[in-house]
Design a protein that fits this description.
Layout lengths: L1 H5 L5 H10 L11 H12 L8 H8 L23 E5 L8 H4 L8 H19 L11 E12 L10 E10 L3 E12 L2 E15 L17 H22 L9 H13 L17 E3 L4 E7 L13 H20 L3 E11 L8 E12 L2 E12 L4 E14 L5 E3 L3 H20 L1
Parallel strand pairs: 6-12
Antiparallel strand pairs: 1-3, 2-5, 2-8, 3-4, 4-5, 7-9, 8-11, 9-10, 10-11
Helix pairs in contact: 3-6, 6-9
Length: 425
């Protein structure tokens, strides 16, 4: 039953693939992920030597003259102009398998997050490519992971994986990228996941927004995809406006929290402070794990800040461990959504990660990971990311129960994210 529900994929990706590949000449040899990262370094002129990073960034300042003054000055692009296919040859090149292998003999999803992040950036650079100009004046970075939905519980470590993707919507300085991951079985590629990222373009020094090429849909299917990108933007605005950090809970949500409060009161005392945990439940304060990462130069991106894919991998691994310790069995990732990159993480930072089970329902576990950097000189903490992950456990899990008002808001926020995920899959 689970496999059936998870594989209710929308038909749009396959339609899109047919639309974009028609009229384009396929290559017999697809690029792999190492070539993706090599192309990105060439496009921005990044050095592979950490000691040269300051000089490389200084050289990018000269590219300011190549920036467009208005979006209207840039040539429009089609969806197929940015369409890319990339291979991850786990089956045909066994030597790369170990990097992707986990203890359960399946693929580490955190590594897939890194690959999706790199591919999303390259797709945007392909969309904004200037003829006769090998280096791009744009600094394109990930602003948001809108949604990643999986339709397979297990990704096999000995079968080739193919990524496809293209720019699906464009604003003035931002681009939505849709990517799909498929895995080879019995000679055919079958869908594994769909991902939607939002990228932003900035100037060569990564300080100010920069205009990107407009996108022109060519077919009714592409018109529908572009329209969905507009709707996704509006949904994000609505979700942000209704945030519990800005607005009070709805009447229904207030009733939910009050019912939880009443169900946890100790009937032997007449006191608001005396609380009792219901059967088969866990206090929210006992459902968390924490981690620390020292951000070394090895994990830097092409702009010499910490790679967003690395941050996503570390957050996912902590979320998985949190769900595993909570449920008592192996959890499987169902969805990732609403990852906002609020500020960059500098090389040398101390990265503090906090994973919290914030909502449960039957055998589903909703985990929120809060990421912040600690400045040892000023002793200040600054939030960099909030991650939301939905897992499914092999067995039904205890109900997580908030005790304080702050935990109740986390509970409601987790419930909202879980409900949004269930609508998608």
């Amino acid at each position: 039953m689970l496999a059936t529900r998870l594989c209710t994929m929308r038909k749009l990706p396959s339609v899109l693939a047919r639309t974009l590949t028609s009229g384009t000449s396929g290559s017999s040899v697809l690029p792999d992920m190492s070539e993706v990262r090599s192309r990105l370094r060439d496009i921005v002129g990044a050095s592979t030597n950490w000691r040269d990073h300051v000089q490389a960034m200084q050289e990018r300042k000269a590219l300011h003259t190549l920036l467009a003054k208005r979006q209207e000055d840039l040539p429009p692009r089609r969806m197929k102009d940015s369409y890319l296919e990339v291979i991850l040859p786990l089956g045909s090149q066994p030597e790369i398998r170990e990097k992707y292998l986990n203890v359960h003999n399946s693929v580490r999803f955190g590594r897939i997050l890194e690959d999706l992040d790199s591919l999303g950036v390259l797709i945007c650079y392909t969309h904004t490519k200037q003829e006769m100009q090998p280096r791009s004046p744009l600094s394109i970075v990930t602003a948001l992971v809108d949604k990643i939905n999986l339709c397979k519980k297990i990704i096999y470590p000995d079968c080739d994986i193919k990524f496809t993707g293209n720019v699906s919507w464009v604003g003035r300085t931002s681009m939505e990228v849709k990517m799909h991951m498929l895995q080879l079985h019995d000679g055919d590629y079958s869908p594994v996941l769909d991902a939607t990222f939002v990228m932003v373009a900035r100037d060569p020094e990564n300080k100010r927004p920069a205009f990107v090429n407009p996108l022109v849909p060519e077919t009714p299917e592409e018109e529908e995809i572009f329209k969905q990108g507009e709707l996704n933007k509006l949904k994000r605005i609505d979700f942000s406006t209704a945030s519990l950090l800005k607005m009070a809970p709805t009447a229904e949500e207030r009733n939910i929290i009050h019912d939880i409060f009443l169900n946890t009161l100790d009937t032997r005392t007449v006191s608001f402070r005396s609380r009792k945990l219901p059967p088969n439940s866990v206090w929210m304060e006992d459902a968390k794990l924490k981690g620390l990462q020292i951000c070394h130069p090895q994990e830097r991106n092409i702009f010499n800040r910490i790679f967003g894919g690395f941050l996503m991998r570390k957050a996912f691994e902590l979320a998985w461990a949190t769900a595993c310790s909570y449920g008592g069995s192996r959890p499987f990732i169902v969805s990732v959504d609403d990852i906002m990159f609020q500020r960059p993480v500098e090389v040398g930072s101390l990265l503090l990660l906090s994973g919290q089970v914030c909502y449960t329902e039957k055998n589903y576990i909703q985990v929120r990971v809060h990421s912040e950097v600690y400045d040892a000189d000023t002793r200040e903490h600054q939030t960099t990311n909030i991650f939301h992950f939905t897992f499914i456990s092999e067995n039904e899990v205890p109900r997580v129960v908030p005790k304080t008002y702050g935990e109740s808001m986390l509970y409601l926020d987790g419930k909202r994210h879980f409900a949004a995920t269930m609508k998608e899959i």
